[in-house]
UniProtKB/TrEMBL annotation:
The keyword Membrane applies. Signal peptide: none annotated. InterPro entries: ATPase_OSCP/dsu (IPR000711). It is found in: Cell membrane; Membrane. This is ATP synthase subunit delta. HAMAP family: ATP_synth_delta_bact. It is a peripheral membrane protein. Its main location: membrane. The lineage of its organism: Bacteria, Bacillati, Actinomycetota, Actinomycetes, Micrococcales. The keyword Transport applies. F(1)F(0) ATP synthase produces ATP from ADP in the presence of a proton or sodium gradient. F-type ATPases consist of two structural domains, F(1) containing the extramembraneous catalytic core and F(0) containing the membrane proton channel, linked together by a central stalk and a peripheral stalk. During catalysis, ATP synthesis in the catalytic domain of F(1) is coupled via a rotary mechanism of the central stalk subunits to proton translocation. Belongs to the ATPase delta chain family. Keywords: ATP synthesis, Cell membrane, CF(1), Hydrogen ion transport, Ion transport, Membrane, Transport. It comes from Microbacterium arthrosphaerae.
Amino acid sequence: MGSATTQALAATTTALGAASGVDLDVARELFAVARAVGDSSQLSGALADSAAPAEARRQVVAGVFGTAVKPTTASLLTTAVAQRWSSADDLVDGIEELAVRAAAVADPASDVEAELFSFSRTVAGNAELELALGSRLGDAAAKGALVESLLNGRASAATTLIAASLVRQPRERRVRQLLSRATRIVADQRNRAVATVVVAAPLSAGQSERLTAALSKRYGTPVSLNTIVDPTVVGGLRVQIADDVIDASVSSRLADLRQRLAG
């Protein structure tokens, strides 16, 4: 990610925090705009052209989307296109990230991170489903409808919107990659870190609480746990937060012992 994009993302996130009237309709419109811009190299190129005056780019937004979106959506888009992005693809990613953040803001009571993680595990455990959602040949709207049917009654409206929207605009990305990125964005929007914990057996409620408290203290921020049960770790656990990995599993210690004996 270029420095220009990093600054642009910071600006759009700040604008979202200051915006009023952010609801799921705003998030839905932002996802639709990301699809439209991503599907048109001419439009994405025009909106990401830093050589063009910011006012000209804002006029393009007004001319293309006009009154088709809510005022809050239009205001956020205006802020987005006024920024300098490292590439047209980064602009599309930025609008998509803005949509994910808006969904998180619109549904603050739901545990969107956990629901997205759970759906990601469902996809990972079903090769047929992963193929159906990830195939380049499938109809985008049908993929979104499939996700909506799978999550109906099982996940919040925000989670359903995010997951169904992302599978409609994969842009060469794997489904699990899309869901993992969305999970991190939602956690960041809510000022939390996401820890993926791999254990041999499910953690009890008390164990989860103690681990959450310990990790939150270590990293200086609230931590949300996503747990994967994998018998191959034998015992102990493996924790990953961003690029930081804490491996206290028995399998890791055995592998280390074998390596020492062999070396």
